[in-house]
Amino acid sequence: MHFAHSAPWLLVAFAPRLLSAALIALWPCAASATPDAAALERNKALATRVFTEIFNERRFAAADELYAPEFVNHGLHRDISLQEDQAAAQGEVKAFPDLKMTVDLIVAENDLVTVMWTFRGTHSAFGYGLPPTGTWIEFRGMTIWRVRDGKIIDEWTTFNSLSAYLQVIRHLKWWFLGLLTVLGWLVWLLARYRRRRVLGAVLLS
User: Fold this and answer.
1) Interval 58-84: pLDDT, tens
2) Does the predicted model carry a pTM greater than 0.70?
3) Domain formed by 34-159, architecture
4) Which residues, including other chains, have CB under 8 Å from residue 172's CB and lie 6 or more apart?
């Protein structure tokens, strides 16, 4: 028996079967490493619902469907609980009754969803530490969410808050100038009154 000559032919004969077995064994690993397109679309739809239902439709009860109870908003200086986060959202809607949030761009990868959004509304009630100013405010920001089991569990948001305050200042600049003018006149009148009193006292003495 010539095993030395028969071995290569055996490999050729069994190669397709060996290749099929290897593919079957490795297929679950390859599938798990590849993102599920349907899952990514579900995550993007979940993120979109936050803007549509909570901010635009004022359906604050939807937060129970969208966020996990252990949700954490990771702020720059401290973490924020779900209760604090939703209280802030309600405060923004109260301060801007005509608030409209638009999703400009949304990208999903693995368990993360990134949204670039635009905030538009009129500052008509107390908010941002200011009384109502009637200022139309518009600015852009970005939020990253982590989704687990169909609910949002982590958040990282960034936006330029200085831009909002500058828009308020530009809107109120003539009001500020008018106020400064009135204060200037009051100071001048007070100084003139005191000067007359001093001169009167000198003359009487």
Assistant:
1) 999 999 999 999 999 999 999 999 999
2) no
3) Roll (3.10)
4) 133, 135
